[in-house]
Amino acid sequence: MFCSCKEKKAEQSVLSLPYFNTADFTPEWDKPNHKIPEFSFINQNGETVTNMTYKGCIYIADFFFTSCPGICPKLTKNMAILQEGYKNDDAIKLLSHTVMPWKDSVSVLKDYGSKNNVNPEKWHLLTGDKDALYNMARTGYFADEDFTKTQDESNFIHTENFVLVDKDGYIRGVYNGTLEIDVERLKRHINILKREI
Q1: Is residue 78 part of a domain?
Q2: Where are the alpha helices (DSSP H) in the chain?
Q3: What is the pLDDT of residue 156?
Q4: Which residue of 13, 84, 86, 147 has the lowest C-beta tally within 10 Å?
Q5: 129 lies in which domain range?
Q6: How far apart are CA 134 and CA 156, in angstroms?
Q7: Does a structural domain hold residue 111?
Q8: pTM of the entire structure?
């Protein structure tokens, strides 16, 4: 679906974005009450990455696994486009969490990063404890629609969502990371966030 000129003008005049405090992604304009929980995972260089790594930055988060034959290559390609677009902007960072940590070791992530031109200064690929990663996906980023419906913790997480997080750790947008039109919308929303006071 393409936006009309009128819709684009309306979006350009928007001065702020809503907050997303619940797993149903209902936009709320009042004071936010859901912040990304504290986390500590290991990146592709074997370094510990925490919330403090992203303090004061806007970032885009997603969930993937390196051997995925389906949506993940498209997600990675679109994250790479974002990396290139914001390569000179230190206020924008990227964060990809594996949902298959039992296979995606540090060395596997490093190799994947090299093959996909991931800049570790801009874009962290994270692995760690499976329960911690899945809990972060489900309760931190609301990235598992099936869990929202079934509450089945044994389900494998697979989501196409890109989640936009502001400099204070609040979710400000959710996008289909496989769709070019949604990635363009994400870029427009980043511009809005950068203008927020």
Answers
A1: yes
A2: 5-12, 72-85, 106-115, 130-135, 145-150, 180-195
A3: 54
A4: 13
A5: 42-195
A6: 9
A7: yes
A8: 0.87
- Bridge partners (DSSP) of residue 94 are 60, 123
Whether residue 57 is contained in a domain is answered as yes
Q: What is the pLDDT of residues 44-93, one digit of tens each?
A: 999 999 999 999 999 999 999 999 888 888 999 999 999 999 999 999 99
Report how many domains make up the chain.
Answer: 1
Residue 191, number of CB atoms within 10 A of its CB: 11
Q: Which long-range contacts (CB under 8 A, 24 or more apart) does 193-197 make?
A: 193/17, 193/58, 193/164, 193/166, 193/167, 194/58, 194/91, 195/15, 196/15, 196/16, 196/17, 196/166
The more confident residue out of 57 and 153 is 57
CATH number of the domain where residue 180 is located = 3.40.30.10
In a domain, 159, yes or no: yes
**Residue 13 confidence class, pLDDT cut points 50, 70, 90:** low
d(CA 136, CA 61): 11
In the prediction, which pLDDT does 154 show?
Answer: 46
More confident residue, 193 or 146: 193
